[in-house]
Design brief:
It is built from seven helices and 17 strands. The strands form four sheets. Strands 7, 8, 9, 10, 13, 14, 15, 16 and 17 form a nine-stranded mixed beta sheet that branches. A four-stranded antiparallel beta sheet has the order 3-2-5-6. A two-stranded antiparallel sheet has the order 1-4. The radius of gyration is 22 Å and the shape is elongated. The N terminus is likely disordered. InterPro entries: PsdUridine_synth_cat_dom_sf (IPR020103), PsdUridine_synth_RsuA/RluA (IPR006145), PsdUridine_synth_RsuA/RluB/E/F (IPR000748), PsdUridine_synth_RsuA/RluB_CS (IPR018496), RsuA_PseudoU_synthase (IPR050343), S4_RNA-bd (IPR002942), S4_RNA-bd_sf (IPR036986).
């Protein structure tokens, strides 16, 4: 059992050393060098899966490359650095970190990102028969949760997973996950629009402010802006921009925490890479 259990949430790590501290420990282990002699560590689970196989299946490289990661002292299991190639683990219950970043090893867990088109409802079913998120995951047998929501006309990143704990943490205000949007709005913005939004506005459901704001483009009667905020309230971006006199004509979410839309086409869904899942874990303290 890891010594870094968080009493506030299952699997949490309140007293876990910082990334810098763990990196220094990993460096020290690397300087000593692993034995590579087939010995077993405290993380060893009899009848488990070889650690290098778990790493390879998580997308960390070839089996040989993953063996080198272990020998170099860059792999941590349940709070302990492992350098023995004979170590076997249970990927469904043990936590594995590479270079202090947690990786996904649970084969039954699914982590997807959809570039949601406008007109799609952010639910897994719709009694009115409108297009919904479930239409994009018909081939998945697992029960998936959507992480938060986008209103029907908003496009862009929405995450789907069967990892309930991760989903709950990502949606919880306590973790303040930043979301970045680009919006096409009516009118040309005043010079102090960004300052007003950063200072904050009182809406009917409370005070809210943006973390970052920039004007991307401006033409007669139209403006394109990019803004980042961590609030997940309903239609929050649309309401903020309307409050300063610039109703939204089109809205796209470009980023959700460490996950970036990049060149992913609209309506396409893809599995998250291992490093992306690890970055999400890191963002919510898992």
């Amino acid at each position: 059992m890891s010594p870094y259990r968080d009493h506030r949430a299952p699997g949490g790590r309140q007293n876990r050393p910082s990334r810098k501290q763990r990196a220094m420990t990993a460096k020290q282990a690397s300087n000593k060098g692993g034995t590579g002699a087939g010995q077993t560590s405290d993380a060893h689970v009899s009848g488990g899966v070889r650690l290098q196989k778990v790493l390879a299946e998580a997308g960390l490289g070839s089996r040989r490359a993953c063996e080198q990661l272990i020998v170099d002292g860059r792999v941590e299991v349940d709070g302990s650095i492992v350098t023995e190639l004979g170590t076997r683990i249970d990927p469904e219950t043990q936590s594995v970190y590479v270079d202090t970043v947690r990786i996904s090893t649970q084969t039954k867990k699914v982590y997807l990102v959809l570039n949601k088109p406008a007109g799609v409802v952010s639910t897994m079913s719709d009694p009115e028969g409108r297009p919904c998120l479930a239409d994009y995951v018909r081939n998945n047998t697992e029960r998936l949760f959507h992480v938060g929501r986008l209103d029907t006309e908003t496009e862009g990143i929405i995450l789907l997973t069967n990892d309930g704990e991760l989903s709950n943490r990502l949606a919880h205000p306590r973790y303040e996950i930043p979301k970045t949007y680009v919006a096409k709005v009516k009118g040309q913005l005043a010079k102090d629009a960004g300052a007003i939004l950063k200072a904050g506005i009182d809406l009917e459901d409370g005070f809210v402010k943006v973390d970052d704001f920039k004007l991307v483009d401006s033409t007669p009667g139209k403006s394109v802006v990019e803004l980042t905020l961590h609030s997940g309230r309903n239609r929050i971006v649309r309401r903020l921009l309307a409050e300063i006199g610039h109703p939204v004509e089109r809205l796209v979410r470009l980023k959700f925490g460490p996950i970036v839309l990049d060149e992913q086409k609209q309506g396409k869904i893809r599995p998250l890479r291992s490093d992306e899942v690890g970055a999400l874990f890191e963002a919510v303290g898992l």
